[in-house]
Amino acid sequence: MCINMDLKHYHVKLRSILDKLIYNDNYSKIDKHMSNSNIGARKGRNIRDHLFVINAIINDITKSKQKDIDLQIIDVSKCFDKLWFSETANDLYEAGVQDDHFTTITNANEDCHVAIKTPWGSISERKSINNIEMQGTVITSLKCSVQMDTIGPDCLNRGGDIYKYKNCLPIPPLGMVDDVLAVGYCGNDSLKLNAIIQSKMATKKLELGADKCFQIHVGNNVSKQCPDLNVHQDIVKKVSSEKYLGDIISSNGKIDENIEDRVNKGKGRVNSILSLLEEISFGKNYFEMALLFRESMLINSLLSSSESLYNVEKKHIDKLEACDKDLLTRIFGVPSSISYEAFYLAPGCLPIKYILQGRSLMYYW
Length: 365
Hints:
The protein is an alpha+beta fold. The chain is built from 12 helices and 13 strands. The strands form 5 sheets. Strands 6-7-1-8-11 form a 5-stranded mixed β-sheet, with helices on both faces. A two-stranded antiparallel ribbon has the order 2-3.
């Protein structure tokens, strides 16, 4: 049987399959060559790894007499759009991809035929663009992480300018693909660290977004005048708290804002779960599906994702459990005054505090 096939309509799928094959063959090699500085697009790594380190540092500084520090939250503006083809290829080669797969990866991006899908569903005429990093491919995020990961080892090699946790463990800039947080002692060391990061970005031809870069001073000497850090020609905005990797990093080490954020989001999730239960008829499986929604949409993905936080107190647990208890009372149609034990034992649910304890133990282990 002879089938007349126009390969132009299938080049996207073929490219995707090729990328996956190359990714699967080279991932372990690339991951082995990377440091722990950047955890983006890496298996077995999670934003909690960096958040745990950052919270530990803030907790140590606020409760001891160590030197004050500055946290520099750095955001690369449109990083995926501006990845420099030649430098990205060089970093990938240094990360261990040095066989024929390297040639295949680079050749695939030397001449790209790009089309735009319009809002009306039609596809524009394909145009040839040379030497670009294609967004949306399987390996692009890992390429970006490899390039940003080079900042960490460079900073560690300088030695003296790096903050050391408890005066012994050097902490490199902590990155999640293109989001970076750097820790430096307040003063000249912080200025040097800022200069290193900017010079590194310049060699990669990447630009920092001044509106998304922040400086947080952490320490007991709050009256100390912190140096002004720069992003290109702009001065970095000084704040007492700011979001990083989904959590609010606060200079005083308190987690009240994070708990409030989780509770507010939890209230929205509760309404979403109840709407699903009303719109879809589950029949005799109603309560099973309700508990499944509770576990997947509320507990695992939101309320119990606090194992990276420090200084969790009973009042914080009570707020999280109040949100969970509100959902269960509305699912089962019982008054909120029902006894605490019966409330969880009857449906076979675990309270938030025990789930959080278990996840914390598993994470630390």
